[in-house]
Amino acid sequence: MIKLYTWCTQNARKISIMLEECGADYELIPVNLIKDEQKSAEFLKLNPNGKIPALLDTAPIDPEMLDTPVFETGSMLLYLAERYNCFLPKQANRRTTAINWLFWQCSGLGPTLGNFSHFASAMVEDKTKLNEYLVKTRSPQKEMYSIQRFSQEALRLFSVLNTQLEGRDYIAEEISIADFAAYPWIETVWSNFKMIAPAPMSKMNNIEAWLERMNAREGVKVGMEKLAYGKW
Fold first, then answer.
1. In terms of C-beta distances under 8 Å and separation of at least 24 residues, what long-range contacts does 57-66 make, across chains too?
2. 48-61 per-residue burial string, b: 16 or more CB within 10 A, e: under 16
3. What is the pLDDT of residues 168-178, one digit of tens each?
4. How many alpha carbons fall within 13 Å on the CB side of residue 63?
5. Domain end (from 41, 56, 84)
6. Structural domain for 168, as ranges
């Protein structure tokens, strides 16, 4: 069984989607970010960086992995792909493409959208429209430069992905961990960006079609719902 130590965030939903799509036997173990449980001595044994999610495989294929935690979502997706032999293409060029775009998401898309949300949420007067963790961690000041910087970078990254999806159903031709990494972040902010930047977003037709394909997958739906905001 996979034990997933987590909370309801975009990063965490990458992993719940993957587990559902793999048909894995797994248990969700809450790590309450509102109470700073990710900073506890117990959790730091799983991830010294003090960030969720993290996982333990209680019945690994390789016995040497027993009691060895896996953290950082890119590493977790790669581990699960190899563990369950799924969603990492066998064809060498597609495999490399999937890994390229996995790291693109982890190093670029995720941090950019996270920073955008951190600063842009300070503009929201009605706190009930924000999830509890964002209320706790958002910027204490309204900083237009930061909002503009990260919104422009997000639009640039959307354009990069939109180009990659030209003529493709999925990022690496076939569905892979690259799609599972990108989807929760883009799904969360998509409608907001369409409101604040309608002109450039109107050109993202390939991403729109990709989102529809992802939305139609049962594993994606369940994985998103398992860690929906306010679930715990």
1. 57/1, 57/2, 57/3, 57/83, 58/1, 58/2, 58/3, 59/1
2. eebbbbbbbbeebe
3. 999 999 999 99
4. 0
5. 84
6. 92-217
